[in-house]
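Quick one, T. Sequence first:
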Amino acid sequence: YDAATGRYLATFTIDAANPAGMNCFSLVIANATGTINAATQIVACQLEPGPIATPFEHRMGELQLCQRYYQLSSGGEYLYNNTSGTSNLGIIFSRTLPVAMKTNPTTAFVGTPTYNNITNWTVQPISPQDYRIGVTLAATTGGGFAYTISATAEL
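Structure tokens:
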């Protein structure tokens, strides 16, 4: 018990030569009567991959940190053609990723987009957080498509 913080602290080491078949550990917390009550909480745990304990890290936004390297972005567009009957109209639009990537990503469609009256789709990065989609609207009225794009920023 740490009187300064009012918390119980425990440090333990799982020996590298653990018994055969043991690939995890179990932690049981019991009060003086041997039962777990509603006031028992496990918070601020940190596991170390070695015998040296480091200061506790307060890391927030783990998902966002991972998304700087890989993201999937899905969308759907319906494009209207109001150019008085012109077909094969080239259209470019941009979209923003939820998290800026580490560098300009490599972008690609995942599979083939679902489409109607749309041909020649392309995707290219504009910045670490933005990409541009280009399509050809083949019909004189309109068309649409649904897509998923992968963005990868490997180091």
